[in-house]
């Protein structure tokens, strides 16, 4: 392992000095996105798209390669890497395999992105039966590489679709399923995302809900029935045991994406709670226990013409800049992305906001009756002649913090329910320019990747991933 104060990414040095990271990474030239056909009415397999994001390239803003899976209805979702070579001095290890789990089928695709990064190909496919038999787990979500050379993937359920928050381990070389990471019988009621901080011997995991319930859409009655989570789970990183559960209550219902600060000495981070649109800060207390407090709240809007009398923002994705100065999140229903200065982590300060579609645009049936934040409903967003359907959802920040990439699909069944025009017309990828000095967000009007014009028909593009690692994939040791 490298010394405590040295961090590398794609063999580029980053030095930690106090709380400041000196970021020295190349500008992104291509990105990978899973594209989903499940619930669109198009009977075609999902695929991994490679998009050119180099403004000097003749294929800028174009999908330059598509890698379709050999199966239907996988629901590709999030991805991760095969090795934490960025945390080691072992130059023989490379990030040349993208781990691509399936949320619905529980199949795992191992993608070779090293031989030709611009034209990935399959290296191996792990069938769901191997996950079922060895782990009695299913519905795979987040993938992280470990310092041990293994790959860990969080699970949301069991093979029958019941809630089960556990973790499976893959061998980092053969990619065979080795078994479960957690101690037997120590699973959480629900699963979703996770982030570990090995210097403090801790991992935090989150909860979405019961897979067989949420897989076909959202019903508010399922909240009352206990089919959605509201807890953070604290795990001992060495013993693989769940040692504490933080119940966030109604205000913390459906805690999704979780992020520790990137500084590996930090004992705090943030989680975005979707249902009531709150951000909680979690932290280690003086007595060694963990606690959480609400630090950001997005007020719901009183509306008519919608399925409920109040519309939450629905925080669906959250990330931190590599220097731990800014926190970003998306409000999928309200349609805005927000930037907060978290220099004081207990008191985040809103410094940037931009609206990119959403459910409250001023030419749609929803009428906002009461809004304590906005004086008027935002206008629809049109980029290069394309109207943005849906709202901002997955976000990914460039290494220098100056470009924020945004896609508009959340999950195919929920896309179909809340934004039927998004399913008909396909999602988009946008780019937001970031003021890294004073804060501020502005849409780049010259950047658009229109997934409504794909050869196989309109498709739902989800998470953005850079070759070699990014703000939401790297964990430093």
Structure commentary:
By secondary structure, this protein is mainly beta. It has one domain: Methylamine Dehydrogenase, Chain H (7 Propeller), CATH 2.130.10.10. Helix content is 6%, strand content 39%. The chain has five helices and 37 strands. Strands 32, 33, 34, 35 and 36 form a five-stranded antiparallel sheet that branches. It catalyses: methanethiol + O2 + H2O = hydrogen sulfide + formaldehyde + H2O2 + H(+). Pathway: Organosulfur degradation. It is an enzyme of class 1 (oxidoreductase). It is a peripheral membrane protein.
Topology, pairings included?
Layout: E1 6-9, E2 12-17, E3 20-21, E4 30-36, E5 47-52, E6 63-68, E7 80-81, E8 97-101, E9 108-112, E10 121-126, H1 128-135, E11 138-145, E12 151-157, E13 163-170, E14 177-180, E15 194-197, E16 202-205, H2 211-214, H3 221-224, E17 231-236, E18 241-247, E19 255-260, E20 268-273, E21 278-284, E22 290-297, E23 301-304, E24 310-311, E25 315-320, E26 326-331, E27 336-341, E28 349-355, E29 367-370, E30 382-383, E31 386-387, E32 395-397, E33 403-407, H4 412-418, H5 420-425, E34 428-434, E35 441-443, E36 449-450, E37 460-461
Antiparallel strand pairs: 1-2, 2-3, 4-5, 4-37, 5-6, 7-8, 8-9, 9-10, 11-12, 12-13, 13-14, 15-16, 16-17, 17-18, 19-20, 20-21, 21-22, 23-24, 23-29, 25-26, 26-27, 27-28, 30-31, 32-33, 33-34, 34-35, 34-36
């Amino acid at each position: 392992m490298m010394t405590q104060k040295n961090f590398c990414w794609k063999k580029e040095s980053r030095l930690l000095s106090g709380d400041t990271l000196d970021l020295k990474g190349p500008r992104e030239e291509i990105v990978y996105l899973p594209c989903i056909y499940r619930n669109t009415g198009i009977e075609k397999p999902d695929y991994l798209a490679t998009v050119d994001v180099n403004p000097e390239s003749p294929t800028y803003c174009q999908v330059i390669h598509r890698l379709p899976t050999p199966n239907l209805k996988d629901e590709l979702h999030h991805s991760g890497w095969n090795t934490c070579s960025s945390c080691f001095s072992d130059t023989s290890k490379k990030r040349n395999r993208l781990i691509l789990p399936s949320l619905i089928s529980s199949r795992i695709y191992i993608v070779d992105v090293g031989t030709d990064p611009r034209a990935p190909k399959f290296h191996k496919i792990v069938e769901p039966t191997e996950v079922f038999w060895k782990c009695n787990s299913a519905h795979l979500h987040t993938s992280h590489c470990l310092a041990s050379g293994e790959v860990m993937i969080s699970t949301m359920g069991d093979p029958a679709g019941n809630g089960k928050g556990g973790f499976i381990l893959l061998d980092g070389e053969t990619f065979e399923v080795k078994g479960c990471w957690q101690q037997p019988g120590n699973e959480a009621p629900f699963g979703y995302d996770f982030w570990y901080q090995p210097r403090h011997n801790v991992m935090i995991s989150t909860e979405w809900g019961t897979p067989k319930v949420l897989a076909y859409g959202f019903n508010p009655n399922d909240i009352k029935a206990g089919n959605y989570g509201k807890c953070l789970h604290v795990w001992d990183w060495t013993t693989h045991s769940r040692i504490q559960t933080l119940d966030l209550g109604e205000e913390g219902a459906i805690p999704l994406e979780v992020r520790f600060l990137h500084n590996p000495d930090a004992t705090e981070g943030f989680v975005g709670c979707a249902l009531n649109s709150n951000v909680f800060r979690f932290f280690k207390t003086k007595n060694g226990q963990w606690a959480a407090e609400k630090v950001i709240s997005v007020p719901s809007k009183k509306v008519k013409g919608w399925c409920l009398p109040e519309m939450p923002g629905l925080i669906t994705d959250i990330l931190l800049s590599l220097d731990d100065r800014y926190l970003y999140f998306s409000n999928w229903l309200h349609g805005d992305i927000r930037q907060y200065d978290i220099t004081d982590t207990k008191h985040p300060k809103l410094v940037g906001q931009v609206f990119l579609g959403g459910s409250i645009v001023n030419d749609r049936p929803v009428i906002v009756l009461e809004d304590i934040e906005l004086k008027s409903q935002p206008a629809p967003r049109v980029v290069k002649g394309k109207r943005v359907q849906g709202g901002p959802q997955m976000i990914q920040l460039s290494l220098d913090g100056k470009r924020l990439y945004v896609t508009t699909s959340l999950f195919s069944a929920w896309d179909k329910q809340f934004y039927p025009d998004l399913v008909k017309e396909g999602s988009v990828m946008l780019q937001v320019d970031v003021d890294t000095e004073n804060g501020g967000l502005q849409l780049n009007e010259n950047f658009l990747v229109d997934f409504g014009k794909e050869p196989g028909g309109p498709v739902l593009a989800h998470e953005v991933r850079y070759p070699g690692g990014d703000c939401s994939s790297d964990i430093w040791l």
